[in-house]
Amino acid sequence: MVYLDHNATTPVLPDVAQAMAQALARVGNASSVHALGRDARRFVEDARESVAVLAGARPAEVIFTSGGTEANNLALRGTGRERVLVSSVEHVSVLDSVAEAATAPISIPNPNPIPVDGDGVVDIGALEALLAAAPGPALVSVMLANNETGVVQPVAKIAEAARRFGVLVHCDAVQGAGKMSLDMAGLGVDLLTLSAHKMGGPQGIGALIVRDGTPLNPEARGGGQERRRRAGTENVPAIVGFGVAAAGEGVAEAPRLRRLRDDLESRVVGVCGGARIFGAGAERLPNTCCVSMPGVANETQIMALDLAGVAVSAGSACSSGKVESSHVLAAMSVAPEQAATAIRVSLGHDTTEDDVSTFLEAWTGLYKRLGEPHDTAVPAPAAA
Ligand code: PLP
């Protein structure tokens, strides 16, 4: 199988698997005072250091969670800010946290998500207008890079604008981490979400990084772990794996992946004049391509590619495995009929030129069979 779904999850890196296997073979609760417990504690703290370095934060600011979803929930609900402004292209774990907060009696609903332009980039002027319309304590949450399109948000500028109104800023950096350089201080955010399985680590472990001095009420209660900010026995093997993944060289792969992705896109557009690459006018992650095939439903494409041995996905797949319409493309004012023909191809460290060719062969074959009759556009001239 050619795996081109790295934004959904990445293969576990061999040194991560090895470190986790060693950790699994040991016994020890990181809170126990005996020697085995102290060993487990040391593994956890080494990993914490590694994650802190990745994010440009201090180890004490790192809270291990069960993944990006829990970290986003904690960030959005934990600061006690009643007014939470999020962009319209956030991950569902952010959007649903706000939707739920809106039903709580103390919370002011968020009727106006921060809009994005046609490329999916947050409109900073609109954010400023929303903040000016209701001054007071608030939390702004904008992701570093979008999981469906790869579009990178100008988070440092957003945080700078938000700061002028004295509000807290959270950034979901799940997709950006390991693919682009990350510096929490440079971004100017107060809270930052990470997830190990998007960067060669295991599933089910992530972190919320909380800048010193930022208020945070725990959601999980019942133990003093993680400096009383997230109760529960630490998942030592997963944390160890996260630490190894965080120290990985993912960002060094960016130029190679960008070349492969750009090549894939120019060949797709060369074959199919009506193919649209979403977010192409904005800065994007080097590994991500969200592309439409005129007249062919994304579910049909995914199944046909699957049969051809290529794994890709639509931008958003719900937990039942069904393809849902994309709120991200809708926020970018993409017509629903076109959004329904968009798939996401996401490359990773193990992707080769041959993988891209296999994808192109299968995609082109499908296009010739089902898409071409619907395609009124002329293919782009072949690159020189
Ligand atoms: N945020 C973004 C942008 C994501 O892409 C994802 C996962 O797809 C998450 C959060 C959730 O992370 P996790 O799978 O670790 O819960």
Structure in words:
The protein has 384 residues and is of the alpha/beta class. Helix content is 39%, strand content 10%. The protein has 14 helices and 10 strands. Helix 5 packs parallel to helix 6 (155-163). Pyridoxal-5'-phosphate binds next to helix 3. Pyridoxal-5'-phosphate (PLP) is lined by residues 67-69, 72, 91, 93, 143, 147, 172, 174-175, 195, 197, 206.
Topology:
Elements: E1 2-3, H1 14-24, H2 35-55, E2 62-65, H3 68-78, E3 84-86, H4 92-103, H5 124-133, E4 139-141, H6 155-163, E5 168-172, H7 184-187, E6 191-195, E7 206-210, H8 225-228, H9 236-246, H10 254-271, E8 288-292, H11 298-307, E9 310-311, H12 327-331, H13 336-339, E10 342-346, H14 353-371
Parallel strand pairs: 1-9, 3-4, 4-5, 5-6
Antiparallel strand pairs: 2-7, 6-7, 8-10
Residues 67-69, 72, 91, 93, 143, 147, 172, 174-175, 195, 197, 206 line the site of pyridoxal-5'-phosphate.
